Amino acid sequence: MPATASEPAVAAAAPRRRRDALPPPAEILPPAALLAAYAVLLVLDLSVPQPVDHSRYMDAARSFPSRPPNPIFDHQYLRIGLTAPTALVMKVFGYSEATYHAFPIAAALLLFGSVYAIGRLLFGRLVGAVSAVVLGCVGIVVVAGTELLPDLPATALFTAAVALAVALRRGLLGHRRVWLVVIGVLLGWSYLVREFIVFVWPLVPVLLWRRIGLRESLCLVTPVALTGVGETAFNAWLYGDPLARLHAGSGLGDLPSRPEVAKTFHDLPLWVYLWRLPQQLATLPEGPGLLLLLALTLAAGAVCAVRLVRAWRGGAQAGPDTRRAGVFALWIALLWVPLTLLGGVLNPAHPKLRLQLLRYWYPVFPAFVLGGVAALWLLGRAVRRPARARALAPAVVVCSVALLTTGLAVLGRPGAPGWAGSPRVSSDALPEFRSWLARSGARTVWADTKLYRVLPIYFVSRTGHRVWRGHLRPLTNATGPAAGDYVVSYSVGSDACPRCGDAAKAALPGVPSTWRPVLTTRDHLLHVWQVG
C-alpha cells in the first residue's frame, strides 16, 4: 500500500476521532463478543499434546535456559520467544495442560483480534469480522491455536504489529513513539519465536512509509536491534556461538529424514516447489474457499500493480481501495518468494525446509483471508444495482463465501472430514485416563515410547496439582511389564496422536490372554490392561 501525501478514509471505516478519546461501546462490544466466543471455542477444543516437537518445547521450557541432550534439537531450545514465556507459565502451573495450552491460546486470540482490527481499519466492520471468523475457524488454525508450536504465535505477533502500523498510518493512535516501540518489541519477539518471520517484516516499514520521521523510526528499530544483541549474547553464553540459532535453523533441511519423508521434498520438479502453497491448501476440507480467497488476493495485487505502474508513467492515481487491497498480495510475496527459493528452487538436492508443511505458511494466512474477503467486498460494492440492493450486495457476497468456507472447515466434505469431528480436538481419553489413574492405586504404568512423552502432562490436574505419584516405564514389547503392572495403549488407527498409535501397534501387536482389561475410554481410543 504505497503512501500518498493524503489518503481519504474509506466510507465503511470508522470516522476519525480525537486521539485521546475512548472508543464508544458500539465499537468495543462486537469485537469483544467475537473474541470471547473464539476463546470459548478454543478452550472447548483443546488439541491432544503430541510426542514430537510439541513435547520438546515443553522439555525446553522445563529446563530453561539450557541446551538439549541431543544437538539435533538445538533449534527448538533456541526459540526462546516460545520457551521463555512457557517456562514462566510452568513456574505457576507446572508440567501441565495449562502450561501446554496457555501461550498458544493467547497467541491465537491475539491473531484473531489483530485480523479483525486490520480488516476494520481498512475496509469496515464486515470485512474485519468475517476475516477473523474465517481464519479462526480454519481447521489447522483451530488445532494450532492450542498446541505448543512456534508458527502460529510468530504469525500472531507479526499480525499484531501490522494492525498497530495500520492504526498509526491512519492517525488513530496518540503517543506515537510508544506504539512504535511496541511494534518493535512485537517484531523482535516474533523473530525469537520463529526465525523466518523476518521475511515479512518489510511490510511494516511499507505501511509506515512517509508516516513517521527518522527519529520516530529509531523508536521502532531500537527494540529490534536490542533483541538481536540480546539473543547474540544469550547464544554466546549458553552455546559459545553468537549465531547458534541461525546455524541451527539453516541446517534443518540437512537433518536426517526417513526415505519416505525425504522423497516428498528432495529432488522434485521445479513446478512442485512453486505450487506448494495452493497444492497443500487444496488438501484441506475448506480448501476450495481458501483457494478462492488466495486467488482473489493475488488478482487484487495484480490490479494494484498495474495501476501503480500507470500512475508512475503519468496516468491516473490508483484509488485508496486498490492500494489497500493490493497490500495483502505484497504480504504474500514477501514470504512466498524466499520460502520457495529456500524450499527447493535454489537447491532441490538440499532444501532448507519442507514446504509441504502448511504451518510454515501460517504467516500468509491472515494476508489471503483478509485480501480475499476485502476483494469480495469491493466486488460486491461495484455491482450496479438499485441503491438498496447495492448496499446489501457486499454483505451477501462476503457472507456467502465465508459461510461456505467456515462450514467446510468445521463439517468437512466427502473424503475430507472437518475439524469438529477430529479426535485431535475432540478426544477426552487422556483426561479420562488421568481420572482413572488418580483413583486406581496403580504403582507402575507402561506406555509405548511415544505416549511415554505425553503422559506426564496428565499426572497432574489441568492446573498442575499432582494426582498420581507412581512410576511410568517405556514399553518396547509385551514381555517387559511384571504381574500387577498396568499397560496403556492410545490412538491406534486414529489421528488423535498418530505417533502414539503407531508406536503402540509396534510395541504391542497383540494383547496376551493373561492381561485383564481395566479401562476403555468412552471414545474407545485408550485402553488399559493389568498384567496377569
TrEMBL record:
Topology of this chain in the membrane: Multi-pass membrane protein
InterPro entries attached to this UniProt entry: LipidA_mod_glycosyltrf_83, RgtA/B/C-like
Domain Glycosyltransferase RgtA/B/C/D-like: 87-218
Protein name per UniProt: Glycosyltransferase RgtA/B/C/D-like domain-containing protein
KW Transmembrane (keyword) present: yes
Protein's cellular compartments: Cell membrane
Membrane-spanning intervals of the chain: 28-48, 100-119, 126-146, 152-168, 180-204, 290-308, 328-348, 360-379, 391-412
Any matching Pfam family: PMT_2
Keywords assigned by UniProt, alphabetized: Cell membrane, Glycosyltransferase, Membrane, Transferase, Transmembrane, Transmembrane helix
Top-level taxon in the UniProt lineage: Bacteria
UniProt feature coiled coil, ranges: none
Organism: Actinoallomurus liliacearum
